Amino acid sequence: MTSPPNARQVALDLIGAVLRRKRPLDDAIEDNPEMAALSVRDRAFARLLVATVLRRLGQIDALIADCLNTPLPPRAALVHDVLRLGIAQLLFLRTPPHAAVATSVDVAHSRGFLSHKGLVNAVLRRLGVEGAGRVENQDAARLNTPSWLWQSWSRAYGVNTARAIATAHLKEAPLDLTLRGDDDEWGEKLQATRLPTGTLRRPSGGSVMSLPGYAEGAWWIQDAAAALPARLFGCLQDRHVIDLCAAPGGKTAQLAKSGAHVVAVDRSTRRLDRLVSNLQRLSLPVEAVAADALTWRPSEPADAVLLDAPCTATGAIRRHPDVPHLKTTEDVTRLSVVQENLLRAAVDMLRPGGMLVYCTCSLEPEEGPERVEALLRSGAPVERRPLGPDEIEAPADWITSEGDLRTLPCHLSEYDGIDGFYGARLVRVQ
Question: Which of 102, 158, 314, 407 has its CA 20 to 30 A from that of 9?
Fold first, then answer.
């Protein structure tokens, strides 16, 4: 008789899905039937286990290497993952040592690695004694950041800021909420802190659907940085606005809330269905179109276009700790081409005098300012409309010398940071 799944067993499978099969963590979770069979509490624990391993992978693997005379062979890759899970619990989640060791040995046994149970036991027991001191002497920011990302951020922002970004990624992101209305009482009802940008922030964890206001559509989940690009338009009342690559719909909701007539375009039918469901919960009207933004065109030119382009998402590593283990420099190059083509398509959808806001949740310059500069150099009929310091609720250092928006994960550190986002505002001149 097959034993029921438990959180550690499911976490082990999810780690393999991300690190060896290169599946995005959210997709791996959604497609794992045993995850769905867990209790709400165990699902949260399984995800926390995996996220901690991914967030601290450089440190964890360095500790494993220090404890082994020879690396584990490829056929024992699962044993390596068992050790990763055990170390995550032992040193970063403060699981009692006896529980972290015993459950890891049990997992190795249940997966048929009987000959490796002694090794798992020995490594974890050793780190139960020595691990805390070893972790204290590690360079966590550098070890947990792939070299290509560290070099990219060092070039773009300087070594000190690169280190601050990497350090911010070591913490789980809090839960940020955007209000549908202007009721100040929701902060108290949700036990949330209001950020300087206006976003409400709660600690992560717990069931989102059980929070006050969810059922009546009083708010939606949206990182504080992600809530800024839609504000770059200014007043949109009764304007015709196209939201490209719109799912999951946080910015779509902002546009609809502002009184715009919104057409939300996304090539993924599944993601678009979720957007429609979210907007229905919020009672915000929107026209949804399943189409490829590269080839789709509106029946008449729009007053405004928001393009939140597909990107490597290196600014959202706090929320997606799988990103450093899935993306490469080749993805930056590939997506830069997609972004360039989408920008040209977006310009084509605008009326003269219409405004385009281009944004990505990437920290890579190739996916942000370099794409805008390339568009301007190409002779496209647009000009940059720089942001003024008082236009949005954001500190002055979030606005670049060119007048674009640039947030970093180390910003708002006193409130546990925000996502890294880039946004530029362009106006069609003919």
Answer: 314
Please identify which residue in the block is written with the tokens 């020595």.
Answer: 130
How far is residue 81 from each of residues 15, 77, 88, 134, measured CA to CA in Å? 7, 7, 10, 20
Of the residues 311, 359, 361, 410, only one is catalytic, namely: 361
* Rg over CA atoms, the chain: 23
Q: Which two tokens stand for residue 197?
A: 């940008």
Backbone angles phi, psi at 79, to 5 degrees: -65, -40
Q: What does the pLDDT look like over 360-384, one tens digit per residue?
A: 999 999 999 999 999 999 999 999 9
Note the pLDDT tens digit of each residue in 232-263: 999 999 999 999 999 999 999 999 999 999 99
Q: Is 235 a catalytic residue?
A: no
CA atoms within 13 A on the CB side of 327: 28
DSSP secondary structure string for all residues of 39-73: -HHHHHHHHHHHHHHHHTHHHHHHHHHHH-SSPPP
The set of residues, in sequence order, having a beta carbon less than 8 Å from that of 257 and lying 6+ positions away, is 180, 284
Calculate the dihedral angle through the C-alpha atoms of 325, 319, 288, 197, rounding to the nearest 10 degrees.
-140
- Maximum separation of any 2 CA atoms in the chain, in Å: 72
